[in-house]
Amino acid sequence: MNLTSLRTAALTAATLFVVAPAAHAQVLDLWKQGKVAFGVYAPNENAPARPPGGGPGRAGAPGGTGAPAAGGQRPPQPPPLYTVGGGEKLAMNPLYDYVFLNLEGAYDPAAVKAMSQGLHSSKAVSRKTLIVRIPPIDKDGAAAAKARVKEILDAGADGVTIPHIRNLEEARLALSFFQDAKANVWSPANPKGDKLAMLMLEDPKAIEQRKEIAELKGLSILACGIGSLAQALGGDRAGAEAGTQQVLVETTRLKLANMLTANAKDVEQRVKEGFLALLMNGPQADEAIRIGRAAAGR
């Protein structure tokens, strides 16, 4: 190889190095600067079944269900569907920093592979972070949850969310799954990490132990599931909001990310409060993100 060829090869390699998207560029680069990341639920591509009479089903919600039929019965629903094409469509939207794939109600590792492949499409406008929520530990047992964490990370996801953490002991168990999977988990104490470990506190006992849970090693994102917490508190929405704010205090103190759902009406407020990951859903998601980006100076 002559000198010119060597120079060309070196320039090509350097160019490839520069343009290749870094892992988690969409969220970690933002969080390191104290900026907010905006994401969306991966939409279920199987439309909800229509109730008798042809009325519309309940659209937009992850794994959405149709409206109740006469007598309060819901029509049978098709299983959730997530495809490579759906992932490609999300990858082409410049508003999204991350995609949240909700498999809590119906675990499907094939959906992770499809979404990961789609998000890594050559049509992608940026590197989207893929975070996958699995069923809680107490649903199918610790062994199943542990296996799912590794399976999801091996399938190309960037992070795993374990919901309904009930107490400090279960939080320790959940984070051990990432250690057993040999994941290099990002945290403020490990800025070179490239995977995300997210826990959701949705029960009163876990909220009481929020400080101790937040201080556990190997945690990237700690969130309060405000809707589930409200249910656990007997419908006390104000109490759930208080719990959300209490968790936010701890994540802000430790510079952890804190994820919360938001919409066009409250996204500005949530940006000002300091949530570093805001999650949108449904047909108004893009509008809400535009409002949020403006409020965040992005």
Provide an overview of this structure.
With 298 residues, this protein is an alpha/beta fold. It has a single domain, classed as TIM Barrel. Strands 6-5-4-3-2-1-8-7 form an eight-stranded parallel sheet. α4 links the parallel β2 and β3. α12 runs parallel beside α13. The relative contact order is 0.12. The N terminus is likely disordered.
Summarize the structure.
By secondary structure, the chain is α/β, with parallel strands linked by helices. The protein has helices at residues 3-19, 28-32, 84-91, 109-119, 137-140, 142-154, 168-180, 204-208, 210-214, 226-232, 237-254, 267-273, 285-295; strands at 37-41, 98-102, 129-133, 159-165, 196-201, 221-224, 259-261, 277-280.
Set down the secondary structure blueprint.
Elements (H helix, E strand, L loop, with lengths): L2 H17 L8 H5 L4 E5 L42 H8 L6 E5 L6 H11 L9 E5 L3 H4 L1 H13 L4 E7 L2 H13 L15 E6 L2 H5 L1 H5 L6 E4 L1 H7 L4 H18 L4 E3 L5 H7 L3 E4 L4 H11 L3
Parallel strand pairs: 1-2, 1-8, 2-3, 3-4, 4-5, 5-6, 7-8
